[in-house]
Amino acid sequence: MHFKGRRAEKVAESYLTERKYTIHFKNIRFGRYEIDLVCELEGIIVFVEVKSLSTSTIKNPYESVGRLKQKKIIKVADAIMNRHFPNNECRFDIISLIINDENQDIEHIKNAFTPEINNGSF
Q: What's the pTM?
């Protein structure tokens, strides 16, 4: 991961902890797939994908989380839920950051996407 990605994840982590989220895992992998942050708020497990850009003129960072990326995140989330949080509910958020030398803009999209139900798991 490059510097911008690490910086964005640290900003997102601080943002979430300031809002009383408990961080359980960072950059957790399942096979080839990864989730940036796994946290909890009021008993709900929140899987967070962090996306950042240095400018918003082209598109918003969250727009790069397409259906294929969502499916990969859901696959990791399914394994984590089964192993660590079998009795909790979960949701999928995106934290979108525009970071440049002058400032940083944060957009937290709660329930950004939902899994398709399939055979008793996500």
A: 0.86
